[in-house]
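A.,

Following up on our hallway conversation. Structure tokens first:
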């Protein structure tokens, strides 16, 4: 939810921390801050708003040690005061995660006479480290984190020491190695192009980072050796290219996401086959857009393998006391692999003896540690908060998983159809003209996305995307359910976007279009079914034509259309589609 970065070396930390925070900004952007050790003193700069609000204050800073933070508020509203870093005595920290027992810790500290200056849970950690400090920062951090319940990735500095002490539990944290300089950050992209070698810290680890080296300790302060890995993030892939927004750039990368995910599947196919042998029931879990991919995975498994399948939002699933039983496989779907509810759902499934398959774009994420098999989504880094190419990659991966469960091998007919899809996705991403429909949506009081079966799964995705990036009210709804209540909302100020890619169900959805239009509602139809446009030409105001394809693969093109519609609408309304208000990309809290 927040991003943190630290630097110790010989270069100016101010520049490095600022650039790192810009790259981490997708993790949260309601306030930002940094702290530097300058001549035996700590300088703290923090501001409400996006990272760029720090820029004017960083110009005059020169320091060799620094830590930075970009925030998505959980405890305490976005403000200068609640922005990180937080200080107590000579200790200054940045923290990502949630300290669940902060209220009781705060009460004890208040009784001891400690004064707090923010409403955050994180400030408690700063005061605890200060309380335990008796000349050794590592020891103080170690004692303090033992008191914390919840999750943390934190970094602490002290005015008279040229080092950072970092600790992690359930929130991601990596070390980056340079020559005569070392780094610490929430994720690999923050260090892309800066560090080629990294170490992913384990839960409970504490790291001492200086310019000359890094020592890593376990929770008992015993020195441990952790693996050094190549940094997989490539800085060139993190730029905007010639697109005005990441959302557009990433929509244009959908074809590659589908193609690379298909290619990458070969590496895990055998392992997956073995894990799925004897499976008689499948549960898909995910949050937000990943849950919408789950809805499609369920349809694939039931249609291809004829095995009962369910799709659940991970946050509901983990608290409903789910029944697993023998032969259950749980597919946990997550772009980031960090989403708290999805990771916990996977852990729960594993502890109950289910086979756990992670479907993720982040192959070193927390989710992968909870899984028996990791099915890669090869979408590449997704920076825009709104998920686009990761969704289509997930759908492609789930298609392949379901075919594996059904016993189809790489030469199967369905498999071959998937190879055709990248060029169809490209056609839609490059040529779709959603501008006029976006204009109509931008003026509407409400926008409803409607479809049946697999088109319904895409309808809910279209609706979420539009809400998220344009802030317009709306809903994704099964077309057949419209007349059972929601039709009451339809009038001349509402737009209904119908998704229609299944020729067998076309007549039924066309009825729903008629029902909307005869109540004065405005209709638009996204379709690749022949004859629909002709039949509805006097009813619907706009048509978006999709290339013809197999109905099971249609989400790969119809999703690009609805996501592009959301993007165009957001731009018309002057929203920032890459950083929608109140949101962050990785939701590592419940
Ligand atoms: O990283 P994840 O796929 O687990 O994220 C799940 C949701 O938070 C995410 O899909 C969210 O709904 C998107 N911002 C939607 O565009």
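Then the amino acids I'd put at each of the 590 positions:
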């Amino acid at each position: 939810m927040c991003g943190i970065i630290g630097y110790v070396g010989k270069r100016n930390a101010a520049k490095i921390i600022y650039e790192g925070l810009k790259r981490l900004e997708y993790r949260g952007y309601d306030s930002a801050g940094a702290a530097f050790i300058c001549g035996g003193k700590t300088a703290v700069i923090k501001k409400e708003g996006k990272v760029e609000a720090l820029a004017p204050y960083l110009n005059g800073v020169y320091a060799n040690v620094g830590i930075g933070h970009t925030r998505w508020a959980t405890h305490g509203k976005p403000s200068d005061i609640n922005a990180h870093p937080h200080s107590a005595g000579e200790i200054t920290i940045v923290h990502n995660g949630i300290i669940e027992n902060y209220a009781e810790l705060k009460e004890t500290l208040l009784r001891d006479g400690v004064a707090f200056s923010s409403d955050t849970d994180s400030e408690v950690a700063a005061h605890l480290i200060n309380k335990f400090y008796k000349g050794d920062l590592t020891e103080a951090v170690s004692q303090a984190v033992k008191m914390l319940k919840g999750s943390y990735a934190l970094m602490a500095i002290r005015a008279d020491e040229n080092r950072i002490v970092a600790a992690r539990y359930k929130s991601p944290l990596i070390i980056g190695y340079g020559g005569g300089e070392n780094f610490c950050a929430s994720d690999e992209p923050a260090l892309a192009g800066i560090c080629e070698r990294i170490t992913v810290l384990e839960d409970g680890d504490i790291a001492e980072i200086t310019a000359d080296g890094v020592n890593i300790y376990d929770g008992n302060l015993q020195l441990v050796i952790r693996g050094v890995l190549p940094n997989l993030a490539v800085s060139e892939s993190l730029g905007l290219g010639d697109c005005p927004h990441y959302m557009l750039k990433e929509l244009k990368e959908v074809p590659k996401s589908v193609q690379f995910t298909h290619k990458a599947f070969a590496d895990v196919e055998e392992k997956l086959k073995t894990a799925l042998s004897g499976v008689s029931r499948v549960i898909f879990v995910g949050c937000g857009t990943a849950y919408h991919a789950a809805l499609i995975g369920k349809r694939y498994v039931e249609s291809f393998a004829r095995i009962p399948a369910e799709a659940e939002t991970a946050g509901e699933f983990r608290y409903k006391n789910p029944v697993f039983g023998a032969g259950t496989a749980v597919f946990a779907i997550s772009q980031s692999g960090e989403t708290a509810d999805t990771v916990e759902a996977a852990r729960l499934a594993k502890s109950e003896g289910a086979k756990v398959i992670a479907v993720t774009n982040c192959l070193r994420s927390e989710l992968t540690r909870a899984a028996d098999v990791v099915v890669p989504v090869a979408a590449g880094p997704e920076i825009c908060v709104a998920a686009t190419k990761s969704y289509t990659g997930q759908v492609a991966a789930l298609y392949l998983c379901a075919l594996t469960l059904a016993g189809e091998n790489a030469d199967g007919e369905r498999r071959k159809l998937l190879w055709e899809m990248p060029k169809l996705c490209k056609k839609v991403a490059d040529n779709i003209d959603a501008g006029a429909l976006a204009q109509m949506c931008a003026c509407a009081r409400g926008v409803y996305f409607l479809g049946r079966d697999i088109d319904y799964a895409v309808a809910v995705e279209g609706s979420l995307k539009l809400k998220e990036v344009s802030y317009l009210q709306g809903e994704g709804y099964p077309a057949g359910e419209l007349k059972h209540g929601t039709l009451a909302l339809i009038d001349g100020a509402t737009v209904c976007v119908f998704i229609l890619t299944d020729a067998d169900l076309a007549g039924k959805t066309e009825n729903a279009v008629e029902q909307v239009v005869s109540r004065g509602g405005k209709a638009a139809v996204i379709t690749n079914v022949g004859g629909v446009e002709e039949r509805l030409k006097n009813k619907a105001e706009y048509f978006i034509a999709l290339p013809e394809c197999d109905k099971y693969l249609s989400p790969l093109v119809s999703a690009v259309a609805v996501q592009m519609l959301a993007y165009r609408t957001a731009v018309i309304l002057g929203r920032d589609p890459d950083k929608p208000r109140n949101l962050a990309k990785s939701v590592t809290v419940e």
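The pocket of 5-amino-5-deoxy-1-O-phosphono-D-mannitol is lined by residues 287-290, 334-336, 339, 342, 385-387, 464-465, 468, 586-587 (CB under 6 Å). Curious whether your intuition agrees with the design.

B.
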